[in-house]
């Protein structure tokens, strides 16, 4: 085995293993909190769903990339290839939608009670379930074309045109099918990232105004303390910044490799790291900072 493959495998493992552990901790923590709590909080269910989506991304993208580096390219049959690639794309879409929902719910939660946005605030976790089901339906449909065009490399003649995706092979599709699903993915990303940007900006502005009022009312000594709502603001901003960095870095690199037809192994491996970087990093933002906005905001 080449030394660069060993290095890349080490990098992948250093992201995949902590990522899986972190998401398991978040998943168990909020399942435990939700199961024992008398009140089922919507934010707990959203964080559980985000951790579950991240684990799918890491298991399908990270582990298969590591297996490819160790020359186990054809360890999956047709069914395995379809399942891995389909789940990876679907989970990526679920992560985008769930992160957006997390940001929107928090923005609505801290909005003043006099505004109309408070009517949209979910009171129980059951009010969040329809949104999560909708996310699953939308992303399953958007990723459904992969079930028809993904094949195992063992079952195909490599002289056929197509795209080799690590351990699997994607057959060419018609232009109508290609542009249809590409347009659907683009529309999904534009809608949810726009909502994410609006809600994050709105929440940061609301918390900043609240913090200014607190500083005005309290003594200067109290002003040196970091209010819990400020920590919540930084939690969301860090999470959103993390998501946007990995998403747009992956998008730009994918656009470059697709437009130029470049197959440089370094670029492809960087792209693989970016694909599950957010899934590995985000649980530690959630663990280190309480992502839920405190109820003290409503008192002001």
From TrEMBL:
<feature type="transmembrane region" description="Helical">
    <location>
        <begin position="46"/>
        <end position="72"/>
    </location>
</feature>
<keyword id="KW-1003">Cell membrane</keyword>
<keyword id="KW-0812">Transmembrane</keyword>
<comment type="similarity">
    <text>Belongs to the G-protein coupled receptor 1 family.</text>
</comment>
<dbReference type="InterPro" id="IPR004072">
    <property type="entry name" value="Vmron_rcpt_1"/>
</dbReference>
<dbReference type="InterPro" id="IPR017452">
    <property type="entry name" value="GPCR_Rhodpsn_7TM"/>
</dbReference>
<keyword id="KW-0807">Transducer</keyword>
<keyword id="KW-0675">Receptor</keyword>
<feature type="transmembrane region" description="Helical">
    <location>
        <begin position="131"/>
        <end position="150"/>
    </location>
</feature>
<dbReference type="Pfam" id="PF03402">
    <property type="entry name" value="V1R"/>
</dbReference>
<protein>
    <recommendedName>
        <fullName>Vomeronasal type-1 receptor</fullName>
    </recommendedName>
</protein>
<feature type="domain" description="G-protein coupled receptors family 1 profile">
    <location>
        <begin position="22"/>
        <end position="286"/>
    </location>
</feature>
<keyword id="KW-0297">G-protein coupled receptor</keyword>
<keyword id="KW-0589">Pheromone response</keyword>
<keyword id="KW-0472">Membrane</keyword>
<feature type="transmembrane region" description="Helical">
    <location>
        <begin position="234"/>
        <end position="256"/>
    </location>
</feature>
<keyword id="KW-1133">Transmembrane helix</keyword>
């Amino acid at each position: 085995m080449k030394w660069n493959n060993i290095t890349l495998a080490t990098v992948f493992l250093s992201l995949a293993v902590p990522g899986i552990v972190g998401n398991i901790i978040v998943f168990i923590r909020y399942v435990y909190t939700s199961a024992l709590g008398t009140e089922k909080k919507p934010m707990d269910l959203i964080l559980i769903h985000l951790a579950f989506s991240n684990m799918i991304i890491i298991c399908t993208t990270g582990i298969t990339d590591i297996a490819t580096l160790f020359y186990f390219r054809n360890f999956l049959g047709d069914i395995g290839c379809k399942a891995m690639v389909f789940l990876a794309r679907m989970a990526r879409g679920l992560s985008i939608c769930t992160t957006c929902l997390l940001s929107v719910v928090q923005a609505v939660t801290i909005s003043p009670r006099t505004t109309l946005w408070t009517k949209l605030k979910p009171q129980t976790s059951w009010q969040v379930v329809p949104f999560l089901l909708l996310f699953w339906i939308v992303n399953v449909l958007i990723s459904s074309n992969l079930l028809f065009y993904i094949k195992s490399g063992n079952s195909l003649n490599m002289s056929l045109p197509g795209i080799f995706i690590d351990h699997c092979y994607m057959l060419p599709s018609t232009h109508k099918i290609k542009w249809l699903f590409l347009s659907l993915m683009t529309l999904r990303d534009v809608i949810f990232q726009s909502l994410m940007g609006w809600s994050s900006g709105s929440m940061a502005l609301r918390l900043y105004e609240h913090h200014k009022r607190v500083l005005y009312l309290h003594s200067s000594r109290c002003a040196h303390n970091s209010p819990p709502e400020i920590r919540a603001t930084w939690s969301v901003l860090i999470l959103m910044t993390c998501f946007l960095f990995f998403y747009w870095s992956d998008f730009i690199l994918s656009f470059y490799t697709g437009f130029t037809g470049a197959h440089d192994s370094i670029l492809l491996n960087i792209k693989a790291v970016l694909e599950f970087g957010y899934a590995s990093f985000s649980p530690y933002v959630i663990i280190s900072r309480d992502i839920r906005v405190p109820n003290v905001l409503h008192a002001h």
